[in-house]
Amino acid sequence: MPRLIGVAGALDMILTGKQLRAKKAKKMGVVDDVVPQTVLLRVAEELALKGKPKRKSSWQNWAMGGNALGRSVVFDQAAKKTREKTRNNYPATDAILDVIKHGLDKGMEKGLAMEAKRFGELVMTSESAALRSLFFATTAMKKENGADAEPRKVTGVTVLGGGLMGAGIANVSATKANLPVRVKDVSNDGILNAMNYSYKLLDKKRKRRIISKAEMQKQMGRISGTTDYSGMQGNNVVVEAVFEDLKLKHQMVGEVEANLKPGTIFATNTSSLPIHQIAEGAKHPETLVGLHYFSPVDKMPLVEVIPHAGTSEETVSTVVKLAKKQGKTPIVVADKAGFYVNRILAPYMNEAAMTLLAGESVEHIDNALLDFGFPVGPVTLLDEVGIDIGAKISPILLAELGERFRAPDVFDVMLNDGRKGRKSGKGFFQYNGKKKEVDKRVYDLLGVKLKSTLSSHELAIRCVLMMLNEAARCLDEGVVKSARDGDIGAVFGIGFPPFLGGPFRYMDHIGIKRLVEMLEQHEAKYGERFAPCDKLKAMAAEGGTFHG
């Protein structure tokens, strides 16, 4: 560890991979000084020659200094908090704590030797291999256009709809892609909502001194609004983010073609409606494409780019480039029901709901999948996304893909009781500001008699197997172009555990033959929906893998 970094201040930064602004780092004691680059070397030499500077007295500094008992308490607390966050899924965090403590106890030379040893051990773990595969995959994707044609230059973005999704799309277009944005909504309230959304995010950065007031004003100045089609003639990309209603989306296509110049790209942010249906009747279907963002847009890294049969290569490459400028990782997926992410998510969520109806508690279900490595449990996720959204998507998937997508009788019962999730203040949980707790009345409402029969591991595997099977089908049907894209989509879109590398790399880790056996065992126990797909059975017979 460099001489100028304080151990106590560095612990949290190292364990979380957190980036710090220079002034914040100095305040925390992570660095000794912050100076202009022109005098950096001179000041560093002076500090090195002076020796370790005196720091403000604190209990933590005293404990970390020379008191073995105090140091042990600090590291025990750090280990406890870290394991609560990682749920023991990331072995590097334990190794980091061991190495730092060993170095403090035994000296720098022995600390460095321990660091080399533990690093060598970690490099050989499956977690390291999975995380490295994601790094190289995302690095490779940065060089790709998603299509053979060269992208055109985006001159500005028009966003149709000032709701949560529209506001988020406007924000990343203005603040990350640095493009002029025009928000169109049917009311001034919608425009104000979109403007306020970006203002709050930028003001938070200003208060934390990440950006200056002048920079905040500059970024806000890129966003404007209107209730008609004025002031957007210079924008050559329209992103539509209105309600999931086919008739309304057809209306938006017609209005854009009537009011904006020919060649304007129309990107529809839909999570469920087929893109080819939205393109029906369009005068220029070649410029229409799906661009599916995930909520909240400013945080979720994935975007699905969905061309229909008539979408031009130039349109695809242009929106892929735009998504990258917005700070997103785009994957190109086929125009089929649910696209990719929602298609593999739906059977996983349905299975979680079935375990609930069978008597497993909400807490047990969520904790089982958190222990598996997902960032949120499936019940919490449904409440966050909105039970009403799930109710809209489910029938579309059932109609297009068959009985394995039939959702348990949960949605209608919950919605009839006014339970849409967090947005309505109650769902499976009851909300009071930022606080939430399981609403026990849900069990009576759904006729659930709590009687847990599954271990945490059994419950998690039962839900995840449905996702894995569907992911294999998606690759077989060309919904995703490669196992690499399928892994990236699942990790960045729904938080599939990164340390497992994505569903396809995880299936390779299990072994395809063993995976088929597990699916067949679940099929015998729970029903036909677990039947392994043809792709997996063929691979099991041939000894194949998804990644070479």
Textual characterization of the structure:
By secondary structure, this protein is an alpha/beta fold. The protein has three domains: 7-124, no CATH class; 157-332, 3-Layer(aba) Sandwich (Rossmann fold), CATH 3.40.50; 341-479 and 511-542, N-(1-d-carboxylethyl)-l-norvaline Dehydrogenase, domain 2 (Orthogonal Bundle), CATH 1.10.1040. The protein is built from 25 helices and ten strands. It has helices at 7-16, 22-28, 40-50, 59-65, 68-86, 91-106, 108-123, 126-141, 164-175, 188-207, 213-220, 246-259, 275-279, 313-325, 341-357, 362-372, 378-385, 387-401, 411-416, 441-446, 456-476, 483-494, 503-510, 512-526, 534-542; strands at residues 157-160, 181-184, 223-226, 237-240, 265-268, 288-293, 302-307, 329-332, 429-432, 435-438. The strands form two sheets. An eight-stranded mixed β-sheet has the order 3-2-1-4-5-6-7-8, sandwiched between helices. Strands 9-10 form a two-stranded antiparallel ribbon. Strand 6 (288-293) and strand 7 (302-307) form a beta hairpin. Helix 4 (59-65) packs across helix 5 (68-86), helix 9 (164-175) crosses helix 10 and helix 15 (341-357) packs antiparallel against helix 21. The longest helix is centred in the last third of the chain and has 21 residues, at 456-476. The two termini are 37 Å apart. The model is unreliable at 1-6 (pLDDT under 50).
